[in-house]
Design a protein that fits this description.
Among the domains are: about 60-185 and about 400-435, no CATH class; about 210-360, Orthogonal Bundle (Helix Hairpins), CATH 1.10.287. It has helices at about 25-35, 40-60, 85-110, 140-185, 185-205, 210-280, 285-355, 365-400, 420-455, and strands spanning about 60-70, 75, 80, 115-120, 125-135, 405, 410. The strands form 2 sheets. Strands 1, 4, 5, 6 and 7 form a 5-stranded antiparallel beta sheet that branches. Strands 2-3 form a two-stranded antiparallel sheet. It is α+β, with helices and mostly antiparallel strands.
Length: about 450
């Protein structure tokens, strides 16, 4: 069953039926629009290509300059420890060294273009890379800027390097002094010789009751040892007094020389004033000869003053330092001599006590003393070996202490950095084509707008 269509519009003629028009477009219409204005697309594309070609011709190639920086390292045990962490150094370069170097460059060259220096750390590496893009003519400038950054970082790390090296050298010096002390038989073996002497005494004690001459010889030997060591100590004491007297004379002579220098300076000042007065009156015949004599006197004062100041500032301090060193050595030798005297006196007292007690050491005591001597020798040899090993390790650490430096001079890339000329032309080709298509659609749109206005006005 069909129902009649109802007219939904009002019957009044003052309401005309609206006309609906679609603006949809299919691919065929799109192709026709592009074909219609293809020369516009070609023209815009050619213009874009021309711009790209002109830029390729006018713009100079840009190269990438890289400098690889190795942070200073030290050997701690079996590990390599860097002076600072990579991130810390990277932040310092970015926030301090690069701005400072670039600002100094701009101050020196106000009309120069600024460079952009970047910092990067490759993955799983312990180096820092400086990168700068610049033309071939700016290669030397970029290399200098990179070098200044590396030098600034190396200078800051040089304090750390020197401090670590001084620590190693100080430890090595102490180890070498101790090793020299242990290897010095005259000083270090005093205790060992004392023990050996006690052992000999213990072994010969068995013969004391039957050999009184041996007892007397032993006692005289101990007494002579004490006497010799006391004589040595007396000599050291006399030497100390002589050194102190020489030091006092030197200081007094230095003081007198200082007074003499001041006196010569005063005479020199007076001569200079006389010379100035003679210069003012040089037109007189007699004053010319006076001026010559004053000049000779000034030259002699200068020469004499230079010689005395040389003695005052160089020779006297050297001599005083030499005497002070001898005094310190004398003090150590006196202490060693006094210890030797005490030891010898103790040996003599023990010997007399044993004679009073009329005792004889047992074989067990002799065996114990021999074991103690052998143990002392073994401990001394072991300590010497440990010190030699420590010295070798410290020497290895000093040799493996590497400063912060550039691994190689700044390297320039073999080929220009960035997009190549063909890529740039393709880029401008695509941009030109897209711009031409957009211009085509715009013109088509404007044509339709005009047609719609013309229809509305008609």
């Amino acid at each position: 069953m069909q129902y009649p269509e109802k007219n939904l519009q009002p019957s009044n003629s003052q309401y005309p039926a609206p006309v609906y028009q679609t603006d949809s477009i299919d691919f065929i219409d799109l192709f026709l629009i592009l074909d219609k204005r293809k020369w516009i697309i070609v023209f815009v594309t050619l213009v874009s290509l021309s711009i790209g070609f002109a830029l390729n011709v006018s713009k100079k190639p840009v190269y990438l300059f890289t400098t690889t920086i190795s942070i200073g390292i030290q050997v701690t045990g079996k590990q390599l420890v860097r002076f600072e962490t990579i991130e810390t150094v990277k932040n310092k370069i970015e926030s301090t060294f690069i701005p400072y170097v670039l600002s100094e460059y701009i101050k020196a060259n106000p009309d120069a273009k600024p460079f952009k220096i970047s910092v990067s750390v490759p993955k799983r590496s312990q180096v820092i890379i400086l990168k700068t893009s610049a033309s071939d003519k700016d290669a030397e400038i970029v290399k200098i800027l990179h070098q200044q950054i590396v030098e600034a970082l190396a200078k800051e790390h040089q304090h750390i390097h020197n401090s670590i090296k001084l620590g190693y050298e100080h430890d090595m010096s102490l180890a070498e002094i101790k090793l020299k002390y242990l290897e010095n038989a005259t000083v270090v073996d005093a205790d060992l010789k004392s023990k050996e002497s006690k052992l000999i005494n213990a072994e010969t004690s068995f013969q004391r009751l039957t050999n009184p001459d041996l007892i007397a010889v032993k006692q005289r030997k101990l007494e002579n040892t004490i006497l010799q060591r006391k004589n040595n100590l007396s000599y050291l004491v006399d030497l100390k007094g002589q050194l102190n007297e020489n030091l006092s004379h030197l200081k007094l002579a230095k003081k007198e020389l200082n007074l003499k220098i001041n006196d010569i300076k005063a005479q020199l000042t007076d001569s200079l004033k006389e010379r100035e007065q003679a210069i003012k009156e040089v037109d007189k015949p007699t004053q010319a000869m006076t001026l010559l004599m004053i000049d000779n006197k000034v030259q002699e004062y200068h020469k004499f003053l230079l010689a005395m100041e040389n003695r005052m500032l160089i020779k006297f301090p050297e001599r005083i330092t030499e005497i002070e060193i001898k005094l310190r050595n004398n003090k150590r030798e006196q202490q060693a001599a006094q210890q030797a005297i005490d030891q010898a006196q103790m040996n003599l007292n023990n010997f007399k006590l044993e004679q009073k007690l009329d005792s004889t050491p047992t074989r067990a005591k002799i065996v114990s003393m021999k074991a103690q001597i052998e143990r002392s020798k073994i401990d001394r040899d072991r300590e010497i070996l440990e010190l030699k090993q420590k010295i070798r390790e410290l020497d290895l650490q000093i040799n493996n202490l590497k400063p912060t430096r550039a691994v190689m001079p700044t390297i320039q890339s073999l080929r220009p950095h960035g997009a190549g000329k063909i890529r740039k032309l393709l880029f401008f080709l695509v941009i030109g084509f897209i711009a031409g298509v957009m211009l085509t659609f715009y013109l088509e749109f404007m044509d339709k707008v005009k047609q719609r206005r013309a229809t509305s006005n008609g």
